Amino acid sequence: MKLVVTVVGVDRVGIIAGVSTVLAEHKVNILSINQTILDGLFNMIMMCETETEEAKDLTSIQDALTQLGNTLGVEIRAQHADIFLSMHRVG
């Protein structure tokens, strides 16, 4: 399963490290990262992949990232990449 992880909030030390750690704990591989900081606002999007296809595993990842986001004061979302990819497919 491919995932798109987004992080938005005020920049601070440990955001990338925290997100990377949570993903590693859930056996999620980071394929690419695009990160910017503009006027102190942190914005990151990651393309990730995991071998599991089970919805319960995605929910577990989402819950862990939400908890981390609450701790860091940023919003973190993990969504199935198919949501984005299907918008660009022509039937």
UniProtKB/TrEMBL annotation:
Top-level taxon of the source organism: Bacteria
InterPro entries given in the database record: ACT-like_dom_sf, ACT_dom, UPF0237/GcvR_regulator, UPF0237_ACT
Gene3D superfamilies named among the record's database cross-references: 3.30.70.260
SUPFAM superfamilies: ACT-like
ACT domain boundaries: 4-79
Pfam families, alphabetized: ACT_6 (PF13740)
Sequence similarity: Belongs to the UPF0237 family.
HAMAP family, per database record: UPF0237
PANTHER family hit by this protein: UPF0237 PROTEIN MJ1558
Record-linked NCBIfam families: PRK00194.1
Protein name (Swiss-Prot/TrEMBL): UPF0237 protein PAGU1578_12150
Organism placement in taxonomy: Bacteria, Bacillati, Bacillota, Negativicutes, Veillonellales
